[in-house]
């Protein structure tokens, strides 16, 4: 009898390790089993590294431990720096356009276009409130288009002499220009005009850098990171989600906000409460 009981305990332990325990809507499979950090980056629910630890497979991330000690948290090929559940944002390492010109205005190295493509990640959008297009350099027009090639905006910065961008903290047109981006973008192309449209080349500042990045970063020398908005559900409104409490993703003491003009919603703690609004077992707690 003891042998049978021991075998049953071993079988149950193995089953739990495989993620076979019953789940509560919006809760990890096995409490304490889920990895909640990759390197220096915390991983809050609804995100996770294992299928039993996420709200749905779209929130699965990867911790690459081959190059960086402790691991590098990845969304596809994008390195994640921070995930916030309080405002449903994710900060990722920024791709940027870098190109240098010779005195005749011809590009000598770098690329004249940069693509940011989140089309395979349905719950993400480039944050229009936290990002804008910045151009660092001299006399090069840079523009942004969407996936259909439609122009979304652009700008050109001017130089009257050498500018040490590492010492600049404001972007006011001198060797730096910036412009806002529209809401709801998943794919953008950042590009320069052809060489015959290039205005002039400064011998002291022959290179330009362009990126879509965080407006809250004021140190131009260190660049900025790209901020993404994410939705817990991206195909239903709050009203539709709340009508089915079994799949509704917001926890206790939270409010549901629709994501702009398209279907999708996010959860936030009500005023006076704090915590993880996506944790269905705890929700937000009084502070």
UniProtKB/TrEMBL annotation:
Keyword Transmembrane helix: yes
GO cellular component, one term: membrane
Alphabetical keyword list: Disulfide bond, EGF-like domain, Membrane, Signal, Transmembrane, Transmembrane helix
Signal peptide: 1-19
TM regions (residue ranges): none
Compartments where found: Membrane
Domain EGF-like: 242-285
Membrane topology: Single-pass membrane protein
InterPro entries: EGF, WAK_GUB
Paired cysteines (S-S): 250-267
Name of the protein this chain belongs to: EGF-like domain-containing protein
């Amino acid at each position: 009898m003891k042998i049978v009981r021991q075998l049953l305990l071993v079988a149950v332990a193995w089953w739990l390790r495989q993620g076979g325990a019953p789940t509560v809507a919006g809760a990890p499979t096995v409490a304490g089993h889920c990895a909640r950090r990759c390197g220096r980056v915390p991983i809050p629910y609804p995100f996770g590294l294992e299928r039993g630890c996420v709200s749905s497979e779209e929130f699965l991330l990867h911790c690459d431990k081959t190059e960086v000690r402790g691991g590098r948290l990845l969304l596809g090929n994008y390195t994640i720096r921070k995930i916030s559940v309080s405002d449903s944002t994710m900060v990722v390492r920024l791709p940027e356009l870098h190109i240098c010109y010779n005195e005749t205005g011809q590009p000598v190295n770098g690329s004249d276009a940069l693509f940011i493509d989140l089309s395979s990640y349905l719950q993400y959008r480039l944050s229009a409130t936290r990002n804008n297009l910045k151009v660092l350099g001299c006399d090069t027009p840079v523009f942004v288009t969407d996936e259909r090639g439609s122009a979304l905006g652009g700008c050109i910065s001017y130089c009257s002499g050498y500018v040490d961008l590492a010492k600049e903290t404001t972007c006011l047109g001198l060797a730096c220009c910036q412009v806002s981006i529209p809401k709801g973008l998943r794919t953008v192309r950042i590009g320069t005009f052809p060489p015959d449209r290039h205005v002039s080349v400064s011998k002291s500042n022959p290179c330009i850098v362009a990126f879509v990045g965080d407006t809250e970063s004021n140190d131009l020398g260190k660049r900025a990171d790209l901020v993404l908005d994410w939705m817990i559900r991206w195909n239903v409104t709050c009203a539709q989600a709340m009508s089915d409490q079994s799949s509704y993703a917001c926890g206790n003491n939270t409010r549901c906000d629709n994501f702009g003009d398209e279907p999708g919603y996010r959860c936030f703690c009500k005023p006076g409460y704090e915590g993880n609004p996506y944790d269905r077992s705890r929700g937000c707690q009084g502070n």
